[in-house]
Amino acid sequence: MGQPTHALTQHDWWRSAVIYQVYVRSFADGDGDGTGDLAGVRARLPYLAELGVDALWFSPWYLSPMKDGGYDVADYRAIDPAFGTLAEAEKLIAEARELGIRTLVDIVPNHVSDQHPWFRAALAGGPERELFHFRSGRGAHGELPPNDWPSQFLGSAEPVWTRLPDGDWYLHLFTPEQPDLNWAHPAVRQEHEDVLRFWFERGVAGVRIDSAALLAKDPALPDFVDGRGPHPYVDRDELHDIYRSWRAVADAYDGIFVGEVWLPDTERFARYLRPDELHTAFNFSFLSCPWDAARLRTSIDETLAEHAPVGAPATWVLCNHDVTRTVTRYGRADTGFDFAAKAFGTPTDLALGTRRARAAALLSLALPGAVYLYQGEELGLPEADIPLDRIEDPMHFRSGGTDPGRDGCRVPLPWAAGAPYAGFGSRDEPWLPQPADWPAYAADRQSEDPGSMLRLYRAALRIRRTTPGFGDGPLSWLPAPDGVLAFTRTDGLTCAVNLSERPVDLPEHTQLLLSSGPLDDKGLLPQDTAVWLHA
Ligand code: GLC
């Protein structure tokens, strides 16, 4: 059982935290109806404490028609009945805290569900139209969309405008069931600040901000044309004022933010992390980076260099509910991640991918800053192939069926090898089918196996919590052969990762703290293996 930690009294816990993402629908099914729920999470809190995470980030658990897995929110102040009740969420937050675990909720400010009361009132012709982007179309009869913006679901041929029977069009960067809010309207700002307070009042420690760089739109909604000049809806300067007001709300509760900011320009990215804006943002360049020593080193160096001037800690992320699972990605010819490159039937060597994912776990947990884990990553779950007739993700449908979508990383977790549905639930079939070999990945089985991914994560998080040198702080590279990443932190902590084909000597040390796989018979570090050492 994990110790209630040090960290609850620590004001800057988030600078070094390990935060575990819970996608409730697929985590654990407490009432047996095939959908994960808060009862399931509450029953597994001891598992999460034993794993040793500092906080849980819940993907949206609010009332939702689930047209985009809950990222289509109909009421920010209500829990979806499939998951439980608000009272249960409050209990969960309190129970997690008892175990030394903080809670983060997920706010989706760019859009709401088309079932949100505001949008329903807007459709009925009310003044709520001003809270969205309604426009007349182009062409002689308004039959063409108001502008040429591309969909945010990459590869999608679908327009971002939908026409209503009355002839007007409304904007939705994602699906038609997710109308975009008009952030130039004061009521939209007011409402979100109230929602933040609502959750901070209920004891949450932080908020993940969905699609954080997309909220503000050029009021003229001009064509995108050739991408020169300020983008009409990505990373607009107006956003910073919005996040400065959010920061003031969070500061009153000692709450923190983590932004979902996908931006290639590192200087623009870092602007969101200035001291009076967001505390942290996800590091998607590290997530997307191929398993290649030189590329990883560049990604790490650039990450640290871009965060330093604003004083924000980096985050290290290998996967989440939107991307291909790590062991699968690292077992493919192309080990990077790119939404546009997703395809059916990509050949995968899972043994290779798992070896690399184990090494990547030790690498990311030794880097300066905070780490995000996505549920099932600690079990080494692979991306699942979902039968075509069971796919639910709109990304698949909006691509015209070429993109497999994101359901493959959202399959209900295996908890008990011998139980029905690998212990996810008890009665009804899980909402997404589990692959036949899922029991082999079950948490109970891995718990007994010293060589399992789960045991590696438990050991790594325990060492990370109890050994000085981890988390926020400086990093110095050590001289190392080509294809090897080796660095020291403070207090004699050293990490080495061999991505070259040849076994290499371990850096100088007095103690081997942990290795992601066995050393060879000469005591050398083999390919795709990482170690933590004490010098
Ligand atoms: C974010 C979420 C993703 C969702 C999208 C629209 O990228 O992570 O799951 O589909 O926003 O809300």
From TrEMBL:
<protein>
    <submittedName>
        <fullName>DUF3459 domain-containing protein</fullName>
    </submittedName>
</protein>
<feature type="domain" description="Glycosyl hydrolase family 13 catalytic">
    <location>
        <begin position="21"/>
        <end position="410"/>
    </location>
</feature>
<dbReference type="InterPro" id="IPR017853">
    <property type="entry name" value="GH"/>
</dbReference>
<dbReference type="Pfam" id="PF00128">
    <property type="entry name" value="Alpha-amylase"/>
</dbReference>
<dbReference type="InterPro" id="IPR006047">
    <property type="entry name" value="GH13_cat_dom"/>
</dbReference>
<comment type="similarity">
    <text>Belongs to the glycosyl hydrolase 13 family.</text>
</comment>
<dbReference type="InterPro" id="IPR045857">
    <property type="entry name" value="O16G_dom_2"/>
</dbReference>
